[in-house]
Amino acid sequence: MLKINDIKNIIEKNSQDLTQEFKRLFHGRGAVYPDWKFLTIDSIDDILSVTFYFECDENTETELFEMLKEFIKTTRHNTIVLQRRYIPKTTAQIIAGELKDNLYVIENGIKIKINLLSNQNSGYFPDMKIGREFVREIAGDKKVLNLFSYTCAFSLFAISGQASSVLNIDMAKGALTTGRANHHLNNLDTKNVSFFPYNILKSFSRIKKNGPYDLIIIDPPTFQKGSFAASRDYEKIIKKLSSLASKDCIILACLNSPDLDSQFIIDIFKEFAPDFEFVKRLENVKEFVAVDDERALKNLVFKKRDA
Ligand SMILES: C[S@@+](CC[C@H](N)C(=O)[O-])C[C@H]1O[C@@H](n2cnc3c(N)ncnc32)[C@H](O)[C@@H]1O
Q1: With a 6 A CB cut-off, is 237 part of the ligand 1 pocket?
Q2: Hey, what CATH topology would domain 126-304 get?
Q3: How open is the CA angle 110-111-116, to the nearest 5 degrees?
């Protein structure tokens, strides 16, 4: 069993090259350290951001924060903030220092607004870093459709990679408002960026009207009550791809479900979009260590077969 001192060693090792950029220092979620599945520790510039996904016993909590308060004496961090994700609608606890307003993370030079005070999703999904690198690399001159865009992080990377246009779609209006602000924060021109607050499953004809698209990103939740269930609804999107895609279209199909594996996506493409071929699965960020890679994030690339 991993002791507090082992966690200290892990985060010290991961802290050697810290910059302003976001970095995960400890990832318990991947079950590599079974007793610490509840814990993640992130470096966000001068903030050490700790998340508990379920309750930990009082002694462990006290020891952990004693260790972290010592740890930040030697690092760039001034603040420790704790989110207890297992308590609904609670605000974060500031364990040391203070939390400024208008926070953002920096990833590969791009700023993305975050809210560390709520115990909901912060506005930024760090495990998608390699997906966003992929999008920036291939976006040049492409017309991009970003489905389930949330705060439009993919759009920032597509536009900074010279995409010709991006259509962001998410039913959460507030997320799109943050998405627009994220473009402004990075001085990215939004002339060719659109933000549609639609339920995707009910809006295929409007989405089609703005196509065809050269790059389509599909990054849905695994399950969101009343809105989307990957096991049932993912195929509804795949069935529409042929009518949305340009002739050389590339698809980035994402899924972060522990219970649905890569084969689930590959199979629904085979069945419902046979005009696309599977190209590769993108690697996951190395700090997000997981016992079983298939229970972690899957980013699968497909491309339209030559006609
Ligand atoms: C996993 S997040 C997407 C993460 C995002 N792609 C990113 O890069 O940060 C899932 C998003 O799907 C949206 N959503 C869920 N069901 C939807 C639906 N039927 N239509 C449109 N948006 C939906 C939610 O509002 C949420 O913002």
Answers
A1: no
A2: Rossmann fold (3.40.50)
A3: 145
